[in-house]
Amino acid sequence: MGTLFDEAAAAGARTVFHLDRPLDIAPDAGTRWSVPELADLVRVTAARLAAAGVRPGDRVAIVKDNHWDYDLLACAAVRAGAVPALLSDRLEPETLRTLLERLRPAALVTTCALLDRCGAASPPVRVTLDAEVPGAVHLAALDAGRTRPPVRRSDDDPLVIHHTSGTTGVPKLVVHSTRTLVHKLARFEAVRYPGIGIRRDDVLLNASAYAHGRTFCWTAVILSTPPAEVVLLTGDDPDTADPLLRAHPPTVVEALPATYVRMRPLTSRLDNPFRRVRLYISTYDAVHPPALRAYLTATRHHRPLWMQGWGQTETGPLTFRFHTRRGTLAPDAETTARRLGRPVPGRTRLRAVDPDTLRPVPRGRPGLLLVRTAALALGYLTEDERWDAKRVGDWWSTGDIGVHHRDGSVSVLDREVDSMPGLSCLRTEDLLEERLPQALECVILGAGDGDPLPVVITADGRLDPGAWKEATNGLPALREPAVLTWDDVPRTGTGKVRRAALAHRLTGTGLAGTGRWT
To answer: Where in this chain does the record put each AMP-dependent synthetase/ligase domain (predicted)?
Structure first.
């Protein structure tokens, strides 16, 4: 990864990158970049990190505003021989300090505002991106003239550290190697597969949380199979994104599920920017049927596809499912949306077991989902016991309750920590969103005692009681809903609802499951 951009430039990659705002590591360099320019930027940044005191084998914590230069900084750190640890700026201050204490990095790359949030956990070497402050060095002021050859490492040495989303508590720090992340994940994806592979004339849109593991792998893929253009969004406000997307209408879109929800108003505009899309991609979390339908209907492509991946930071993608325009319009679309496809052939195996006995359950019955994959990460930093507790022989516990169907496909019903007997929170959320067009999102919070609490998220924090009564017809017993706006809901850096925090805020209690497998 340290020489990724150099190799792409040497191979003649002509991809042009368009940003919605300048990079934080190059604030005066504009919003249009070529591959050779990015290769120069990574080399210069690696030299500056070395000038700051970063040495081979060091851990470098990176926490900053959301932008793709998370990955550029990570590549620069790898080039210098260090191990980058990417931390989301959306982390709560206490959580951020906890992760920094576990990391014990030799250097911290951040902004002035976030430096204060890091507190006493900050390492001696502090590099700021936006300004000079006492006790830190400014990246732009560091000597970039002494470029060094890239430091090589074993394929099985730690390459990068990402954290899990943290929906149920303090995130885990996941360590990946070159073998697990590049050879087993990125290399498999970096093929121009018919229909779903990147084409040379494609315009790719990515709207993601760049501190998380998916985009580091994605960066390796797009430099290996370069498209014509890449458009990168750092936020999810539709009015802000609209001009850039109209100027460069994408043919392939990858975005966070929460971003798809926020950007959905663009699909109904007369000259919507998704009119050329042939392929949508989603990971991290489920996408509900109304959003699938809106985007697949918005494009003028005759046979658009939606590729939904299910996986985890520890494993990468485990299954793939394809949605079509016809499928999202089918009467049973809401009941089949949770089928997340089959395990990746030749790469992933899956089974469902009883959560208590760990014995396999028959196909078609709910159980704790276990997987086997060669892309499994090296472990959790400083939490070996927690890592070992999720191993079941040669299998890995996903922490998800689901069904392994007779045709080999898998449906995810709930995270184990969210699960309740006789009810799938996720399927109930799908049904409510299908029946409540005014809802941006619905969340079902299981409680240790009493009926589940539904949370309905709307644009204005209001919900018609009659519409709610009609929407819950035929559903299991639910409490009266809590109606919130989008900004009222605690979220992770990837836009997932922090269910444990929301449940504690609204009920004063935790979630219904045991949490054993988190």
So the answer is: 20-381
C-beta of residue 85 within 8 angstroms of C-beta of residue 67: no
Closest Cα to residue 380, out of 96, 173, 171? 173
Structure tokens, 430: 């799908």
Asked whether residue 503 carries a pLDDT value surpassing 90, the answer given is no
How many C-beta atoms surround the C-beta of residue 389 within 10 A?
12
Helix (H, G, I), strand (E, B) or coil at 28: coil
The torsion angles phi and psi of 219, rounded to 5 degrees, stand at: -60, -40
Q: Cα–Cα distances in Å, from 246 out to 226, 268, 273?
A: 21, 14, 5
Classify each residue of 117-152 as buried b or exposed e, where b means 16 or more C-beta atoms within 10 Å of its C-beta.
bbeebbbebbbbbbeeeeebbbbbebebeeeeebbe
* Beta partners for residue 83, in sequence order: 59
Is residue 175 within 8 Å of 79, Cβ to Cβ? no
CA dihedral 1, 181, 64, 102 (to 10 degrees): -120
Distance (Å, rounded) from C-alpha 155 to C-alpha 298? 43
What's the rounded Cα separation, in Å, for the pair 36 and 413?
46
pTM for the full predicted model = 0.91
Tell me the β-bridge partners of 360: 353
Q: Give φ, ψ of 198 to 5 degrees.
A: -75, 130
For the record, the structure tokens of 480 come out as 């009266």
Q: Exposed, middle or buried: residue 376 (CB in 10 Å: 0-12, 13-18, 19+)?
A: middle
pLDDT tens-digit readout, 297-333: 999 999 999 999 888 999 998 998 899 988 766 555 5
**How many angstroms separate the CA atoms of 270 and 298, rounded?**
10
- Per DSSP, the residues of 154-194 read -TTSEEEEEE---SSSSPPEEEEEIIIIIIIIIHHH-S--T
The pLDDT score that the predictor gives to residue 419 is: 77
CB-based contacts of 514: which residues, under 8 Å, 6+ apart? 355, 416, 417
**At residue 499, does pLDDT exceed 70?**
yes
What the block records as the tokens of 492 is 């992770």
Token duo for residue 460: 């204005």
Domains and CATH numbers, the chain: 3-181 (3.40.50.12780), 250-415 (3.40.50.12780), 425-507 (3.30.300.30)
- Residue 233, pLDDT above cutoff 60: yes
**Ranges 44-48, 113-117, 254-258, 477-481: which has the least confidence:** 113-117
- Dmax (CA) of the chain: 69
pLDDT at 92 over 70: yes
